[in-house]
């Protein structure tokens, strides 16, 4: 936690007992509302065919928990191949976004050159155009490039988000100039200063860009739906929609599929949430 | 001062020696290329296509404003526009207010609060497809929510059968999924509100509600405007929730079609009407931008008052 956070914690007067209890009651209620549906889905996915999933009162805990539905869903659709496709797309998106957005952001914030303003305007404009209003043209562009129905075609349009470039630019702009001054005097060139000095100082923002890039690619639905048609190239989201359309009858299988899609992301987020919340706070303060 | 000046001169000299004029452009090239190729170029080509009768596999001729004229007489366009606008009206007020209350709830550093913050963010992390499928299951005729409603004596409700209820259900899912996202934005804004204001107000004997209205709301008003603008733009462009809950064609008779669903439906596939879908896309773009400016302007006027 940042220093201001800690100061705030010390400055806080302690809550009276009753208020504190009320707060926890409210927190638990919201917890039930936000996380409850996921638990219900998990529970459904673990219930065997012998268990009535429609019974009342509903039971959250399966009587004879089984992993059969996970094997079942994999027999019907190649869900692990879908997951691998999603992983490839998401990993590529993280790498390209971190590298591309950081280097462009560095140039915009730290290098002086004619045309800097125009470059900034290009990114601002790219950010303002909603993806939804250019997807048909993007689809045609991909077709011209013969990249339709490929994972590369899924990755390319979002591989260096204009929003991320601007985020990185703000992070670099907030660094004090003294940080690079010594390297300057020693004759380090722009690339050396970028990689060795500036980049390590904006790790927080870089982590936020990485998390958003991974989540964005892993969760994206509309663009893969448009660009992919061959089932062997499907990402998890498209595959799940397909599963839902075909086998809506067995809710246990659909539930197993959704758990496969969401669990890795929840685990990843749980591991990184500390950096994430800190990074978001950092960005907000530096604005 | 006299010590600094020589140092500064050295710096300018170093720069001219180490930085080639092309260096910044090498840093920028990948980002600029991608933004131009997959952002600006498709935008210009969308505008150009909107004046042609192009299809997926054929180039198309210039037809002037024919696509736009057809749009005005297309009942599906008006249904889509109505649903997209209803979505904004239904979703935005809730997404401006509820996440603020949530942020106030998780703001205090009480034991375990980090867990609650992260847990409340879970719906944001999950894919909209996962979220859609979870809620389709919860709202099913034989699902959990109907079982509870029946138990409480309300009887079953066909959430997914009736076009209006389906639209409302999709809105509820959007709000549910968005809460955590906007909560984080508010949390960052609340960190900037000086505590002294609250304390002074408390000393004067103001209760929690009073302090919320006189201190918190004015302090986070710019953030509320930002959240309002973001939420309106996202609500207007809604696709996935409606698509997953109502199906690709927007339910029976397309009653639950939104504008973006229409763009996808009309413009893709082998016989996709690229020209017409492009005209629809231009309308989506203009209305999105207009909506954003409207919300930002309205909130600024309130600010001045």
β-strand number of chain A? 0
Name the helicity range of chain B: over 70%
The gross shape of chain A turns out to be: globular
CATH class of chain B, please?
Mainly Alpha
Oligomeric assembly: heterodimer
In whole angstroms, how far apart are the ends of chain A? 18 Å
The CA-CA distance between the termini of chain B, in Å, is 46 Å
- Beta-strand residue fraction of chain B: under 5%
Nearest-integer average pLDDT of chain B: 87
* Topology order of chain A in helix (H) and strand (E) letters: HHHHHHHHHHHHHH
| Most residues in contact, chain pair and counts | A-B, 106 and 95 residues
CATH architecture of chain B: Orthogonal Bundle
Low-confidence stretches of chain B: 1-16
Residue windows where pLDDT falls under 50 for at least 5 positions of chain A: 1-8
CATH superfamily of chain B: MetI-like
By DSSP (H or I, 4+ residues per run), the number of helices of chain A equals 14
Q: What's the Cα radius of gyration of chain A? A: 24 Å
Any key phrases for this structure?
heterodimer, A: 287 residues, mainly alpha, 14 helices, 0% strand, disordered N terminus, B: 305 residues, MetI-like fold, 74% helix
Describe this entry's structure for a reader.
The complex is a heterodimer of chains A (287) and B (305). Chain A is an all-alpha fold and 287 residues long. Chain A has helices at 3-11, 17-45, 68-76, 79-110, 116-128, 135-144, 151-155, 162-173, 178-185, 190-201, 203-219, 222-227, 236-246, 251-286. Chain B is mostly helical. Chain B is built from 15 helices and no strands. The longest helix of chain B has 33 residues, at 75-107. Chain B is globular and about 75 Å long. Chain B: It holds the Pfam family BPD_transp_1. Chain B: This is ABC transporter permease. Chain B: Keywords: Cell membrane, Membrane, Transmembrane, Transmembrane helix, Transport. Chain B: Residues 81-295 form the ABC transmembrane type-1 domain.
């Amino acid at each position: 936690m940042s220093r201001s956070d800690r100061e705030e914690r010390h400055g806080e007067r302690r809550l009276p007992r009753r208020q504190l209890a009320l707060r926890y009651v409210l927190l638990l209620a919201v917890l039930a509302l936000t996380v409850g549906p996921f638990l219900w889905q998990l529970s459904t996915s673990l219930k065997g065919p012998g268990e009535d999933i429609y019974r009342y009162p509903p039971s959250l805990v399966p009587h004879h928990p089984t992993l059969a539905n996970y094997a079942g869903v994999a027999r019907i659709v190649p869900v692990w191949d879908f997951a691998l496709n999603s992983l490839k797309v998401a990993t590529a998106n993280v790498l390209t976004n971190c590298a591309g957005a950081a280097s462009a952001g560095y140039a915009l914030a730290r290098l002086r050159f004619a045309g800097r303003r125009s470059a900034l305007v290009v990114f601002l404009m790219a950010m303002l155009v909603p993806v939804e209003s250019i997807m048909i043209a993007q689809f045609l562009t991909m077709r011209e490039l013969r990249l339709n129905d490929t994972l590369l075609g899924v990755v390319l349009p979002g591989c260096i988000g204009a929003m991320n470039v601007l985020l990185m630019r703000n992070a670099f702009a907030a660094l004090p100039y003294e940080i690079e001054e010594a390297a300057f005097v020693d004759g380090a060139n722009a690339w050396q200063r970028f990689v060795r000095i500036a980049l390590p100082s904006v790790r927080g923002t870089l982590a936020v860009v990485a998390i958003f890039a991974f989540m964005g690619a892993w969760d994206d639905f509309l663009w893969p739906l448009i660009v992919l048609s061959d089932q062997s190239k499907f990402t998890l989201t498209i595959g799940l929609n397909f599963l839902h359309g075909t086998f809506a009858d067995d809710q246990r299988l659909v539930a197993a599929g959704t758990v496969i899609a969401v669990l890795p992301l929840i685990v990843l987020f749980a591991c990184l949430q500390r950096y994430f919340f800190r990074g978001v706070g950092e960005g907000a303060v530096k604005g | 001062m006299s010590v600094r000046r020589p140092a500064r001169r050295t710096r300018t000299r170093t720069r001219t020696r180490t930085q080639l004029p092309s260096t910044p452009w090498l840093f920028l090239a990948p980002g600029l290329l991608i933004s131009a190729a997959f952002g600006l170029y498709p935008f210009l080509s969308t505008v150009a296509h909107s004046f042609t009768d192009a299809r997926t596999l054929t180039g198309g001729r210039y037809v002037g404003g024919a696509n736009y004229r057809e749009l005005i007489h297309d009942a599906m366009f008006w249904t889509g526009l109505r649903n997209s606008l209803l979505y904004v009206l239904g979703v935005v007020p809730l997404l401006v207010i509820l996440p603020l209350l949530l942020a106030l709830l998780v703001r205090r550093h009480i034991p375990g609060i980090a867990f609650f913050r992260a847990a409340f963010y879970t719906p944001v992390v999950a894919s909209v497809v996962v979220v859609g499928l979870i809620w389709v299951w919860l709202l099913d005729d034989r699902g959990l929510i109907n079982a509870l409603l029946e138990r409480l004596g309300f009887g079953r409700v066909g959430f997914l059968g009736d076009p209006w209820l389906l639209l409302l259900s999709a809105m509820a899912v959007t709000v549910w999924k968005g809460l955590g996202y906007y909560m984080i934005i508010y949390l960052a804004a609340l960190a900037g509100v000086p505590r002294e204001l609250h304390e002074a107000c408390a000393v004067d004997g103001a209760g929690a509600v009073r302090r919320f209205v006189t201190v918190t709301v004015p302090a986070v008003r710019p953030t509320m405007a930002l959240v309002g603008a973001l939420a309106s733009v996202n609500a207007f462009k809604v696709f996935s929730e409606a698509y997953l809950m109502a199906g690709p064609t927007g339910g029976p008779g397309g009653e639950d079609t939104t504008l973006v669903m229409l763009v996808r439906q009309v413009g893709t596939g082998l016989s996709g009407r690229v020209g017409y879908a492009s005209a629809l896309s231009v309308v989506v773009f203009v209305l999105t931008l207009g909506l954003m400016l409207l919300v930002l302007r309205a909130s600024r006027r309130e600010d001045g008052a």
